[in-house]
Amino acid sequence: MVVDVLVIGAGAAGCLAAIKAAEAGARVALVEKNDRIGRKLMLTGKGRCNLTNAKRWAQFSTHLHNKPSFFKPAFYELSNEATIAMFEKLGVKLVLTRDDRVFPESMRASDVVDALDCRLRQLGVQMMMGCDVNNVAAEGDGFKISYVAKSGTRFSSASVLSRTVIVATGGLSYPATGSTGDGYEIAKSFGHTIQRTFPSLTALTPAGYDIRLKDITLINISASLYVGRDMVAFEFGDLQFTDGGIEGPVGFKLSRRAVWAMINGDKVSLLIDLKPAVPLDLFKERVAREAAALGVSKYNFESKKADLLRKFMPQQLVEPFADSNSLNLVNLAATIKEWKFNIVDYVGYRRAVVTAGGVSLDEVVARTMASRNRPGLFFAGEVLDIDGDTGGYNLQFAFSTGALAARGAVQFLGLS
After folding, report:
1. CA 52 – CA 13 distance, rounded (Å)
2. Which end of the chain is more exposed for a tag (fewer CB within 10 A), N or C?
3. Which of 380, 375, 296, 366 is nearest to 332 (CA)?
4. Could you tell me the CA-to-CA distances from 13 to 170, 273, 313, 362, 379 in Å, in that order?
């Protein structure tokens, strides 16, 4: 079989690349090691699929890490507004929620995946599911792609020729979905540099983590991330304690800096302010008033501290908080506003939302997603050395770079 465009990986970036290339009249094949498209898409947004964020570029770009300007041409090739319009045209009703996040109205990721699958089939894209690519080699002006196809319990080796290749294999996060770093090996085989990869948007694990905290959500708190003695990041919002440690929007946003610091051997700590809206001096006065109303003094503090703590935090947080801090009536207010966690570990790729690092942006043309090393080779999505915060930014990056890589391939072929 010979095609014009072969896309490796049927995630968000790969599906958009295949759709846009087919819409431009190219003969397209989409190769995926899983038995269907969008395996990781099904997990995004806790199964609800936060497919984009509606912020304008000026704000959107502040949520990207490592050269946001690289993404600008792709963003304007397929903006968040265009993404919303596209999915609505495909029959997916969308809703806008807090922080400009966009979800399917049904809150089912499967609706997004099904819409993409339907469009791919309408366009006649050759769907090569259950095919694991093991080699991409230059062949004349194009490429020979070798793969192993699975059918039931049988495996067979085969190959396909393509004039262009778009690598959209994802990174290393959620390896159970097939993201096992295959794209990095393809890139390296063409001389590309892979910037160091590490998990991002993942749980941070404190020393002596109290599992009783699991499933507690803190609303409207603030958290300060320290590397050594220096505060390097600050976030306000919601935080969740899970079986892995500290997660939720605040935990995820801080995780990238924290993981990188730990990889480099630095000491990391997190200070959580449970009452960020109240200055410490005023909060001390409030604690004193509540203590007086409950008849709490330094003499009976131990027996009454649980009653006092319930005035300032959820019931289920009282015991873990009290047990993890040496409390007295004098330091109670300050401790509530500076609850310290020494971060000693993190949950790795098995549960990280996204991979930081990847194919060096210096070796990819931002206007086309084309390899600077090999004509006809393109990259899209998480395989590239750029990642975003939680909130729809990473999926929009995938959709946009997939669309731009398709246009780059089509232009390379002289089809537009």
Report:
1. 13
2. C
3. 296
4. 8, 38, 42, 20, 9
Specify the DSSP class assigned to residue 197: E
Please name the residue that has the structure tokens 């109205």: 105
Closest C-alpha among 205, 235, 212 to residue 324: 212
Q: Decide if 28 contacts 22 (C-beta within 8 A).
A: yes
Q: What angle do CA 379, 380, 383 make, to 5 degrees?
A: 85
- Comparing CA positions, the residue from 362, 377, 367, 364 lying closest to residue 404 is 367
Strands (DSSP E) along 182-257, which ranges?
Answer: 194-200, 204-206, 217-227, 230-241, 246-247
- Asked if residues 199 and 355 have their Cβ atoms less than 8 Å apart, the reply is yes
DSSP secondary structure string for all residues of 346-370: E--TTT-SEEEEEE-GGGEETTTTE
Can you tell me the distance from the alpha carbon of 241 to that of 243, in angstroms, rounded to the nearest whole number?
7
Identify any residues that bridge with 202 across adjacent strands, giving them in sequence order: none
Could you state, in order of their start, the residue ranges of all structural domains in the chain?
2-199+353-413, 204-346
11: nearest Cα among 89, 148, 116: 116
Is-contact 48 94, C-beta < 8 A?
no
**Strand 126-129 to 101-104 pairing:** unpaired
DSSP-derived 3-state class of residue 313: coil
- Helix, strand, coil percentages (3-state) for the chain, rounded to 5, are 40, 30, 30
DSSP 62: G
- Taking phi first (over 0 means left), then psi (-120 to 50 degrees means alpha), and beta for anything else, what does residue 87 get? alpha
- Token output for 405: 């890589």
- 307-325 pLDDT, tens per residue? 999 999 999 999 999 999 9
- Contacts of residue 285, defined as CB under 8 A and 6 or more positions apart, other chains included, come to none
Q: For residues 170 and 179, give the distance between their C-alpha atoms in angstroms, rounded to a whole number.
A: 6
Q: Is the pTM of this model over 0.70?
A: yes
Reported residue count of the chain is: 416
- SS3 at position 159: strand
Quote the CA–CA distance of 201 and 250 in Å, as a whole number: 10
pLDDT digits (tens, 9 = 90+) for 223-282: 999 999 999 999 999 999 999 999 999 999 999 999 999 999 999 999 999 999 999 999
Q: Any long-range contacts for 294-299 (C-beta under 8 Å, 24+ apart)?
A: 296/329, 297/329, 298/328, 298/329, 298/330
**Burial (Cβ within 10 Å: 0-12, 13-18, ≥19) of residue 294:** middle
Q: 19 and 119 in contact (C-beta within 8 Å)?
A: yes
